[in-house]
Amino acid sequence: MELKVDITFYYQLLIFLSLFFLLNILLFQPILKVIEARRKGTSGERDEVEKLKRQAEEKSRLYEKKMEEAKREGLVIKDGLKKSGEEEASKILSEARLQADQNLRKLEQEIQQEEVKGKDWLKANLPVLGKQLAEQVLGRSV
Fold this sequence. Notes:
- By secondary structure, the chain is mainly α.
- The chain has 1 helix and no strands.
- It has one helix at 7-138.
- The longest helix has 132 residues, at 7-138.
- It is rod-shaped, with a radius of gyration of 58 Å.
- The termini are far apart.
């Protein structure tokens, strides 16, 4: 069996090549352009997504950093307020102790004065009281 090249081979080759170029121009090139445009669009969107991701991560880090700074500042303020409150409480307590000591000394002085007055009154009224007591115990006038 021998293959013979005749005119039909050339017709088939001509039809094949003309269809190849025609399909290339009408079908393959537009499809490849659409695919390339999609790839570029997707690639651009991927780049945009990556860019937005990096921005979000950066903002997140910045947020965390600011939160840590705010916490530290809050602790410093809290400690300052606590310390000033303790100092104020200590001051108030010392003033109250001083006032209590003064009141105690004043009361002691008043008690001593009342004691002196009581002794003086007893000394002045001792004879009269002794007489009244003797009259009550004896039941008669002395």
